[in-house]
TrEMBL record:
GO terms for cellular component: plasma membrane. PROSITE patterns: HIS_KIN (PS50109), RESPONSE_REGULATORY (PS50110). This is histidine kinase. Its EC number is 2.7.13.3. It is an enzyme of class 2 (transferase).
Amino acid sequence: MPHTTVPANVLLVDDQPANLLALEAALDTLGVNLVRAESGLEALAALERQDFAAVLLDVRMPGMDGFEVARQIRARPRSRFTPILFVTAGDDPDDAMLSAYALGAVDFLAKPLRTEVLKAKVGVFVELYRSKEELRARERRDFEQRLEVKEERYRALFESIDEGFCVVKLLRGPDGKVHDFLYEEANEAFCMHTGLQNPVGHTMCELLPGYEGQRFEVYDRVARTGEATRFVQEDRIMNRWFDIYATRLRGGGADLVAVLFSDITQRLLAEQDLRRLADQLAEANKRKTEFLATLAHELRNPLAPLSNGLHLMRMGAGKPEMLEKTRQMMERQIQHMVHLVDDLLDVARISTGKVELRRQSMDLRDVVSTAVETSGSLIENAGHKLSVDLPAEPLPMDADPTRIAQVVSNLLNNAAKYTPECGAIALKAWREGGEAVVSVTDTGIGIEPAALGKVFEMFAQVPSNEGRPQGGGLGIGLSLVQSLVALHGGSVGASSAGRGKGSTFTVRLPLAKPQATGGGEAPASRGGKLGQLRVLVVDDNADAAESLGVLMEMEGHAAHIAHTGQEALAVAPEFRPDVVFLDIGLPDVSGYDVARRLRAMPAGERAMLVALTGWGTQEDRDRTRDAGFDRHLTKPAELTAVEELLRAASQQKA
C-alpha cells in the first residue's frame, strides 16, 4: 500500500505550550498525527497507549527532565526502539548532546529550530516507520494467506477422512474427576459414525442424556499422561461398537483430547455371522459325515439278506414254502432300500424347491388308514401295541394324499424305531377349528428338552443310551415331515417329558373349506383280466430287462427284450409295440433319442412310451415328457405302478 495510507504518530514533549505550537506548525505538512505531552509523565502515558514514529523531547522540563524520560522510554519493551530527537536551548549543547546520544537519541536539535531541517529529519523517521509498518502489514497478509491455505488444506483433510474425528475438552468437577466433555470440533464423518447431529458446542451428556461415561476415565488418563491410546469399546446407549484412537492436544492442563474413531458395529456383526456360519458349517459337515456313514450302513444291511436269499432260492428250488418265505424276506429288504432311496430323492427335491404337490379332495381318515397299513409290519415286528382313534366325522382336505400318508407313516415309523420292544404307540386324529390335528404318541426313549428344537433338522439323530434306534434311520424322516407339512400350509411340533418318558409329535393341517361334497370316484379296481399287449423292454441291464420281460409274460402279455437303442429301433417296425419300457442310460443311443425316433415311426407313433431311470426330479420328468415319453418311472419301478400303466394301455388299445 502507499506510504501515505499508513497512519503515523509523532509525540511532541515540551512543558511550554508555545513551543508545542511551533513544533506543530513546522510538522503540519508531513501528514502525521501530532500528539502533545507537556510533561514527562504525560509523555510516558502516551507511549503506553500507542506507537510513535518519533519522539521530539525537550531536555529541560520541571520535575522529570528529558534525559530521565528517555531512560524510561528505553526501559520499556514497547518503546525501546522508538526514535528520540532531543530539543534544547541550553548554553552548552555539547555536554547535553553527549548525554542524549548516550541514552540512545537519534538526533540532537538546538533551538532556535529551523523548520526545514526539523521537517526533513522528522520526515525521515516517519518514512522509516511507515515502511516498517507496511512491511509488517505485508508479512501479516502473507502469513494470513499461508495460514488460510493451511486451514483450507486442514479443513479439506478434516472433512475428507472416512473416520470420525473430533476434539473434546474435558470437563472436571471440584474433585478433579471428568464428568463430561465438550465437543469443540467435529467432522462430517462424526455424524455418520455416531448418528449425533451438530455436536460442536454441546457436551456428550447433552447429546446423549443418560450417557454412562464409558470413555471419561480413558480420556482423563490421556490428558494427564500425554500417552496416546487405542481401544475398542461399546457405547451401550448408542448400541454401537467403536474403534477409538485418542491423543492429547497441546500441553498438560489444556484438557484437550483429539479422537479418531470408526463405527465397527457391522464389522463385528459380520465377524459374529462368519463365526456362526463356520460353526454351522462344521456342524453340517459333522452331520454329513455321520449321515454318509449311516447311509452306507443302511444300504449295506439289506444286501446280506438279499444275497442269502438268492443262495436259499438256489438250494431250495423244490421247497415251495421256503421259497415263499425267502421271497417275502427279499421283498421286505428291497422295499426298505426303495424307502431309503425315496427319502433321499425327496430331500433333494425339497432342497431345490422341485416338489410338486398333486392336490385333490380327500378325507384325512382314509389317508391315515393307508399310512397305518404301510407302517404296520414295522410296528408288528417290534411287538408294539398300536391304538388308532379317528373321528366319526370326515376330515376333508385339499392335499396330496401320497405326501400326507408319507408324513403319518414317517411319524409311525419313527415311533416304532425309538420305542423299545413291546411298547405302545397311539395315533389320534381330530378336528380343531379349521384344522385337522394328528398326533402320534409313543412310550419310547423320549427326547431331552435341549434336543427338542433340533429333532426336525436334517440328519438329526436322537441320542440314546441304548445305542442306535431299532431299524436304523438316516435322520431325515422328521425333516421330510416338517417340509411336507409346511408345503401344505401346516405345522408340526414335538414334545417330551424327558429321557425314557416317550414323545408326542403333533401335526396341524388346514381343512378344506365347507362345500357341497359328492361321492368321489372309486379307485380303479385292480381286478379284471387285462387285454394282451405287445410290450417292448429296452434296458442294457440284462437282469433288469429279463425280470421285467418275465413279469410281462406272466401277466399274459407278449414281451420282446432289447439291450441297445439300435436293437430297439430295428425291432420296433415289425413288433409294433403297444407299450415300450425304455431305459434312459443306454450304451449306444440315449433313451431320449430312441423315444424321438420311435415317435417318428408309424410303429411307435401311438405306443405308450415309459421312461425307466434312476433320476426322478421334476426337471428329469420334464425332459422325458419333452422327448415324447408318456410316463416316467423311477427305478426300481413298483409293481402297482407297472400294473396301472398296463391297465391304462389296455384301455387305450381297446
